[in-house]
Amino acid sequence: MIGKNGGFDMNNSIVTVFGGSGFIGRHLVRRLVAEGAVVRVAVRDTEAAQYLKTMGDVGQVVPLAADITDTESTRAAVAGADAVVNLVGRLAANKKAFQKLHVDGARNVAAVAREAGVRHLAHVSALGADLGSPSDYARTKAEGEAAVREEFPAAVILRPSVVIGPEDFFFNLFAGLARFTVAMPVFGCPAIPRLRFFEDGALLRIDLFGHGGSRFQPVYVGDVADAIQSALAGGSDTDGQIFELGGPNVYSAKQIMELLLTHTGRRRILFPAPFWYLSTVAWFIQMLPWPLFSVDMVRFMRSGNVVSDGAKTMADLGVAATPADAVLPGYLARFRIPREQHLHST
Fold it and tell me: CA–CA separation, 157 vs 126, rounded Å?
């Protein structure tokens, strides 16, 4: 369906969302359904997507078995669709898996969409995607973007920062960790503490955190879903454009940890975790069957995760960025220390 400026009118249109059962996907599907679209949720495990069917009327949300690295299943999921969204990606994997999903899979989706005559394609990449990055994750994300634009020049590329929300991996992970530990890491601090003599009337001050470690610009998952929807509807105003999606505030790693502790009502010691230390720890963690951390993730964090100067942003898509402080209290409430225990500890 064609809207203004050749954009996309969701009502009664068919949208295929690859990876639609994931964190961002569930929020996007809800919004597409509200606009009257018929949504095909293309995933490898259709059972994991069944819960999405309750978001719409009977037959409005259809889980389909598809693998973006398999041309035939991808073609079947795309056939007859008016728009396609690719949300598939992994944060922790080996180089071969990154190549398969981020580059080969992304190219396959774009090529099949073009062959099927799909009018609009939104490809969700990642903030920090860079062909010259030492991180396999960041480099393959950039290679995937190039592959998509080669196959489907009008594709809209969206690069979200760290995505936060009720089901996020980021704040939930560290809030859970804070329940069982007395100290929390501050990522990316200086390897050697800075000694400051005769400052502010003190003979010696030891600066452990420097500028506070790695920088992040967390973006609310609902805003990311709104941005994707807006990008699809934008027509000629968004075709072929790249948008970087970040929240309204940039935080250092130290500020992130302080924010988390504030909203969980906990007191924890913050300790500096320089990159050499993180790489050492990550080397052992990545050997686990389901690693939560890897050496490649440490490489990725070295460059920070903030919106570039001069980049097109959510504001250009008509989406107002939601502050982290506005959403964290709601879903971190379950991690809060009980009031009685808090009063006793103080």
Answer: 9
Helices marked H in the chain = 23-34, 71-78, 95-98, 106-115, 136-151, 170-178, 221-233, 253-264, 275-285, 295-301, 324-332, 339-345
Query: Residue 200: left if φ>0, alpha if ψ -120 to 50, beta else—which one?
Result: left
The C-alpha atoms of residue 284 and residue 280 are separated, in whole angstroms, by: 7
Fill in the DSSP letter of residue 287.
Answer: T
Asked if residue 24 lies in contact with residue 85, where contact means CB atoms within 8 angstroms, the answer is no
Could you read off the pLDDT of 54-86 as tens digits, one per residue? 998 988 999 999 999 999 999 999 999 999 999
Is-contact 304 229, C-beta < 8 A? no
* pLDDT score, position 209: 84
The residues spanned by each domain of the chain are 4-163+217-247+306-321, 170-214+251-303+331-337
The values of phi and psi at residue 296, to 5°, are: -65, -35
State the pTM of this model: 0.90
Q: What is the DSSP letter of 320?
A: P
The pLDDT-based confidence of 344 (bands split at 50, 70, 90) is very low
**Average confidence score pLDDT of the chain:** 90
Backbone angles phi and psi of 277, in degrees to 5:
-70, -45
For tokens 């935080």, the residue is 251
CB 7 within 8 A of CB 29: no
Helices (H) and strands (E) in the chain, counts: 12, 16
Q: Which fold has domain 4-163+217-247+306-321?
A: Rossmann fold (3.40.50)
Q: Where is average pLDDT lowest: 122-131, 209-218, 251-260?
A: 209-218
**SS3 per residue for 186-226:** EECCCCCCEEEEEECCEEEEEECCCCCCCEECCEEHHHHHH
Reduced to 3 states (helix: H, G, I; strand: E, B; else coil), residue 141 is helix
Helical (H) or strand (E) element with 86:
strand 83-86
Encoded tokens for 39: 């949504």
Residue 199: per-residue pLDDT: 65
